[in-house]
Amino acid sequence: MGPHILAGERPLLAFVSSVMRPNLQWARDATVGALTEKPTLIPWAFEYTPASSEAADASYLSKVRDADFVIWLVGQTTTPPVRDEIEHAGQSLAGPGGGGGRSAAPPKPQYARADVRGPWRGW
């Protein structure tokens, strides 16, 4: 086996957004698991994050703004916090210089939307 290859760029931050309910937890777990396997990605999901002295809504909304892309797992319903996440992600798209987040270079963030309303049949 050859030497370990290091990434030349910082990993991309992927914010995982959905209603946090038991019927969607499998989708959140699968998404975070798949993203974790990629050395160029860092997933951010609320339930996988240590407690913070920052207010919960301020904490997750700052991660939305910092994200390189947002993965929105759409279920049967949504909640005000999820609507806030998606709204903040949309505002980041039109932020200063057309970008937002950690980098001054546009475009960011990008959306990926997955409809998880039906029964899971595996990948």
General form: globular
Q: Largest beta sheet: what is the strand line-up? A: 2-1-3-4
Number of DSSP E strands: 4
The class by helix and strand makeup works out as alpha/beta
Write up this protein.
- The protein has a 4-stranded parallel β-sheet with strand order 2-1-3-4, sandwiched between helices.
- Strand 3, helix 3 and strand 4 (110-115) form a beta-alpha-beta unit.
- The chain has 3 helices and 4 strands.
- Residues 97-109 have low confidence and may be disordered.
- The chain is globular and about 50 Å long.
- The chain has helices at residues 22-36, 56-66, 80-93, and strands spanning 12-17, 41-44, 69-74, 110-115.
- The two termini are 30 Å apart.
- With 123 residues, it is of the alpha/beta class.
